[in-house]
Amino acid sequence: MSFFNTSLFSEESAKDIIKKRKSLFSANYKTAKRVDILSKNLEYDKAKEFMKVVSKNYLDLLNLFPENTKEGHGTEALPSVWENKEEFDALMKKSSDDMIKLASVIEDSDDIRATLKQYMWKNCNACHSKFRKPH
Q1: Is the Cα torsion angle 127, 130, 133, 135 positive or negative in sign?
Q2: For residues 131 and 80, is the Cβ–Cβ distance under 8 A?
């Protein structure tokens, strides 16, 4: 006889997963703001280190949207994440790749604001508009 309640365990796991992905998205936003400021201040070496962190976080997010995390626990993810999983995953990969591209082009940019928008903020907006509940 087992005293292990699998539904309680899976519910706790869903809560932990949602908490972790919310934390990563929040960290990415805060880090992206630092990248923005550092880049505009021409502090490229520091900015590039943060770009790598954001890139890795996007890849980590790929594993944080299992079926049992569609609702509850304060998730801000829309059902479209699971309905369009390939598109969502592709956007996470593109966002990660774009941060690496940003690190390689930022120093040579004639328009830092436009470059940040193209490689960083545009991806944030794309995800928020299709895959996140409005605030």
Answers
A1: positive
A2: yes
At 132, is the secondary structure helix, strand, or coil?
Answer: strand
Query: Is residue 18 a part of any domain in this protein?
Result: no
- Contact yes or no for 65/85 (Cβ under 8 A): yes
Please give the Cα distance from 133 to 104 (Å, whole number). 32
Domain of residue 67, residue span: 29-131
Q: Does the model's pTM come out above 0.70?
A: yes
Taking only the tens place, the pLDDT of each residue in 1-15 is 444 444 444 555 999
Q: How far is residue 125's CA from residue 39's CA, in Å, rounded to a whole number?
A: 20
Q: Look at residue 10 and tell me if it is in a domain.
A: no
Return the pLDDT at 12: 58
| Number of domains the chain contains | 1
The per-residue pLDDT for range 18-45, each reduced to its tens digit, is 999 999 999 999 999 999 999 999 999 9
CATH number, domain containing residue 118: 1.20.120.10
Which spans in the chain are helix H?
Answer: 6-40, 44-61, 80-83, 85-105, 112-116, 122-131
